Amino acid sequence: MKRLDREQMAARVARDIPEGSVVNLGIGLPTKVGNYLPPEREIILHSENGVIGMGPAPERGHEDPELINAGKQPVTLLPGGAFFHHADSFAMMRGGHLDICVLGAFQVSCTGDLANWHTGAPDAIPAVGGAMDLATGAKDVYVLMELLTRDGQSKLVERCSYPLTGVACVTRVYTDLAVFALRDGDVMLVEDFSGLGRQGLADLINLPVHES
């Protein structure tokens, strides 16, 4: 079974972000997407800690400790970029001014429910951050995650068993094995990297998978 590595996964998401979009990249793997956005395509990156107009990660040795994203990673600022109070940043998120957000997830349901802040385990540390605001405020929510857990269970499920971040908010799921669109409760296969084919992926995640 073939699979993409994490850099290839991020690059695949970057391919689908259209010209002129205002985009928030979630903490963790989604932040890598910014490194693969084509420079000729005007895409404005937003961070909930109060930055807009971010560029790719800085070269080693050129980091500015006072210019970071929500994950405390150093970033660059493109011409025209700005930083501001995080309350204004959250107002942008809640006001529907973001076209796309890219988030990680523990689980996504076939109806687009998102669970990405807490596994419910007694020793787990909840970390919702701005995810609830992003999931409900962005026009499109893309999830970027490995399709299977370490013990081989699908993260794309019929119903989430973890506490929800948002309800019916996810439109696309980008994984190491395939890209799926979620439409009216159906899982649609957009692209298969695994070589398993539509039915093989359906058997793997134990859900019906339809042609896009």
TrEMBL record:
It comes from Allopusillimonas soli. Belongs to the 3-oxoacid CoA-transferase subunit B family. Keywords: Transferase. One of its GO terms (molecular function) is CoA-transferase activity. Pfam families: CoA_trans. It comes from the Bacteria. NCBIfam families: pcaJ_scoB_fam (TIGR02428). The keyword rRNA-binding does not apply. Transmembrane segments: none annotated. SMART domains: CoA_trans (SM00882). This is 3-oxoacid CoA-transferase subunit B.
